[in-house]
Amino acid sequence: MSTMKIGLIGYGYWGPNLLRNLTETDGVEVKWCADLRSDRRTAAGKRYPTLEITDDVEKILLDPEVSAVVIATSVSTHFSLAKRALRSDKHVLVEKPMTRTVEESEELIAIAAKRELVLMVDHTFIYTGAVRRIKEIVQAGELGDLYYYDSVRVNLGLFQYDIDVLWDLAPHDLAILTFLFPQAPRFVSAVGADHTGRGIVDVAYMTVNFDNNFIAHFHVNWLSPVKIRQNLIGGSRRMLVYDDMEPSEKVRIYDRGIQVTSPEGMYKALVDYRMGDMWSPKLELREALSVECEHFVECIRCAKVPRSSGAAGLAVVKMLEAASKSIANDGSRVSL
Questions:
Q1: Residue 274 confidence (pLDDT)
Q2: What is the pLDDT, as a whole number, of residue 158?
Q3: 13: phi > 0 → left, psi -120 to 50 → alpha, else beta; which?
Q4: How far apart are the first and last CA of the chain?
Q5: What is the reported pLDDT for 1?
Q6: How far is CA 155 from the centre of its chain?
Q7: Is 291 left (phi over 0), alpha (psi -120 to 50) or beta?
């Protein structure tokens, strides 16, 4: 098996994590690392002395030895960099969210398909052992008919300069939602507020409605005194809590709910609760980024469609774009 050579663009907040995992992936050599900031180039060079360091992305794109490019830059640059890379016949892994608009995402997908290249989005959480196990639980019907998906992702900062809190934090949980429940949503509504006067929403609440009365709700916040990363999934048979801050039992399944036998029994449902056991399934503890990088390489070598494909990235961007439109229109529904 020949060594696959990869170039990394961006060595800021997330780039070091990607670079570390790429260098540890079998059959991969990270040849290039590009960043516009001299301090970040210096840091990359000290940590990885064999890397070729540059501030010029074209050196990576014009290198015939480079098969793939990983993009870890600000959201506003994702589209232009990914488009240039694809047109240079490089496979692409791009940070979330894939682009700033639906139109941009669709264009990248079309270019990748025409050139038969892998386009993958860094939806890290779907590669965690927790989310992959939840997928198995949902597909096996262990939760029964699905009622709701409720997400809270809040912390103090980090304030972004080019995107609001929805575009910063919600992609994680929207990607999980899309991975677990692939059915298309019907409409989105959202409200948000800007407390700094910068014109950027820092607290937001977003709701996504599906057929069959299934509903998903997202609370994202840069102004929370505590860090919370929690998802709840409610079903007719069981309910599930995924707490990413929990060190050991990240996923807990509750045999709890209510029993509704008929419309006439609605009053009884208010008091007839089912209170069963709780248990926590065993999870794979391997780092999600390691799984993701290995998957990216496998998809390139075997011409597979990634779990977090361009289509998955587009689905997330569609919901984010709809949410932004809803906030601009005082929380009105936006159809998808």
A1: 66
A2: 83
A3: alpha
A4: 44
A5: 73
A6: 17
A7: alpha
From start to end of the chain, where are the E strands? 4-9, 28-34, 52-54, 66-71, 91-95, 119-122, 146-156, 187-193, 203-209, 215-221, 223-235, 239-243, 251-258, 273-279, 334-335
What angle do the packed helices 165-180 and 129-139 form, to 10 degrees? Answer: 40
Q: Within its chain, how far is the Cα of 303 from the centroid? A: 22
The SS3 of residue 207 is strand
Please state, in angstroms and rounded to a whole number, the distance separating the CA atoms of residues 315 and 301: 25
Say which DSSP state 303 is in. T
d(CA 186, CA 335): 6
Average pLDDT by consecutive 10-residue portion of the chain (336 residues)? 94 97 97 98 96 98 98 97 98 98 98 98 98 98 96 92 94 98 95 95 98 96 97 96 95 84 56 75 96 98 97 98 98 97
**Contact criterion met (CB below 8 Å) for 190 and 330:** no
Question: Please, what are the domains in the chain?
Answer: 4-124+288-307 (3.40.50.720), 126-286+319-335 (3.30.360.10)
The closest of 46, 50, 47, 44 to 8, measured between CA atoms, is 44
